[in-house]
Amino acid sequence: MTVGDALGQANSPLPPSRKGVLYGVGLGPGAPDLMTLRAARLIADADVIAYPTLAGGESFARAIAADVIPQGVPEIVMDVPMTVARAPAQASYDSGAAEIAKVLDSGQDVVCLCEGDPFFYGSFMYVFARLSARYDVEVVPGVTSITACAARASKPLAARNERLTVLPGPLPEDELRNRIDGAESVVVMKVGRHLPKIRAVIAALGLTDQAVYVARATLEDEIVLPLADAPEAAPYFSMILLTKGADPWL
Amino acid sequence: MTVGDALGQANSPLPPSRKGVLYGVGLGPGAPDLMTLRAARLIADADVIAYPTLAGGESFARAIAADVIPQGVPEIVMDVPMTVARAPAQASYDSGAAEIAKVLDSGQDVVCLCEGDPFFYGSFMYVFARLSARYDVEVVPGVTSITACAARASKPLAARNERLTVLPGPLPEDELRNRIDGAESVVVMKVGRHLPKIRAVIAALGLTDQAVYVARATLEDEIVLPLADAPEAAPYFSMILLTKGADPWL
User: Fold this and answer.
1) Domains plus CATH for chain A?
2) Starting from the edge strand earliest in sequence, which strands make up the sheet with B238-242, in order?
3) pTM, entire model
4) Which of A4, A72, B20, B141 could in theory staple to B109 by disulfide, Cβ–Cβ 3.0 to 4.6 A?
């Protein structure tokens, strides 16, 4: 089924025998007006919305979409505990997926809110894995944090035939070193508490002067700094851009 | 200057002494409703728009934005010849940048239309390189083709601590082989006439069964197929997704 078909069905009354459609909707990096027109329309027309929260905190995804969420629409909250053990998080996605499935079985659609892009390091993948075999799922891509950070840092990510490598900050120090060394453009995501380790790796490779630190890109409290000037403590939503190769003149 | 400040200025009359702002606006992968709310507002309010065309053909960027471009707004067209030599393309960006600079000097803003994201393999980088030292430039990120293709193929790109590697299809065969081998999630962009070479590399690595071919994602004539079933001839706007590692259960 194409996105167009799905939208058409979402906008017309569903026969009772028809299952609802699950939409995984990317909301972009944080500024509400960086969500797509399609995302805004799907949320405004939603029967039911769903989103994750971390350890009972506020949902970043819900905060991005707040202005377009209809008054009084039912909300399915998946509270994901922050534990090293995986079972508690799996259990919360299991029960969230079961709640969503009930709504879909009733013929109503569910719009699952996803910060950034649903398939780019997004928690929607865990909902998708649990429901995609049984229900129609439409994923609406969103602006990722990597191009948002590049825009805010005025650093082109990759041009022409350059390679781009995206590395999660939690990777072990030696793996980070090996992957950054010999790469071209590099983005290190999910910096957070891994900043000292990542900074040491980049310094050891002599690349600190080419590195930019960006935290909470496009939000009110955004920070864009040369890595050398970055604070000691970084939030989870921060990254480091290392663009070595761009040839701006084409 | 923050995006917010820039938007504020764009919406208020500029004193004659004030230079205009150049906006590099990402439009997403092709479906018009995958442009961001900010992109749509900036284009609708534009004093002047600018965009590239390839060898006198239609501009894909302009086609994506067609419904929101104001009637009669002045348009600066940068016609980029498709030549192996780089000088002709450089010359067209030089003259395009000079035209844009004239408008900015007059105090008017220019909205440069960019398919996908301006800093992700985007031609806007060549305009940016020519003007960013002299003018305020605001880059508005857009949905990239890689997350759009992943959404349409129902293939998560990367989760948790997976690495993602983006490779341009024109890279030499041995470099493609070395970079794909030992990578985790891989996206090969700009497939086009390089499809036979890329297909051979992926087959030699025994990864054909994990590879998906996506062409013109989100457009009417979109194609999503297992790589084994891909046509012989691929358009420029096509890519191959190789997602090896995703652990969907968290």
Assistant:
1) 3-143 (3.40.1010.10), 146-243 (3.30.950.10)
2) A223-226, A211-215, A238-242, A185-189, A164-168, B164-168, B185-189, B238-242, B211-215, B223-226
3) 0.91
4) B20
